[in-house]
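A protein record pairs a chain with a discrete description of its three-dimensional fold. The following entry can be read in just this way.
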Amino acid sequence: MGPEALANLMDRHAAALTLFARSRCDQAEDVVQVAFVKLTCLAAPPDDPVSWLYRVVRRDAINAGKAEARRRRHERLAAADSPCWFDPDPTAHLDADEATVALRSLPVEQREVVVARLWGGLTFEQVAALVGTSSSGAHRVYQEALTMLRKSLGVSWKPTRN
């Protein structure tokens, strides 16, 4: 199949194929694109390229939808089985589940710094080496993360000066 015939097929059918695939999976554009790539890889073009594209898109969209469902199920199970990041303490003023959600809502860089500093016990110099910044940069990220956590958890805090 020549480039002009392929371009014509794409112009005329890609949108409809994408809509067709979208009923089966979230990655409809990718499925359609791969189908067109598969068409170009054939030794000889099919007798009815449009029907062939629909069959390939349907099969690949079904497979993609199944893979998406497996991934979502796996992520749900992993989240349900993952341990709470905090040990619940009935005398504490923070709820462990809320604190876990708040910590998970931080950007990855901030979460790494907080976990390394608080739970890992690393110094700011060690944290800086870990994340590839200066110790003052690590301290700044740490302070920003704590501010976001306090805001998320509704905790007010005023530093004390000794």
User: Anything to note?
Assistant: Residues 1 and 40 are 7 Å apart (CA to CA). The two ends are 79 Å apart (CA to CA). The chain is about 70% helix and 0% strand.
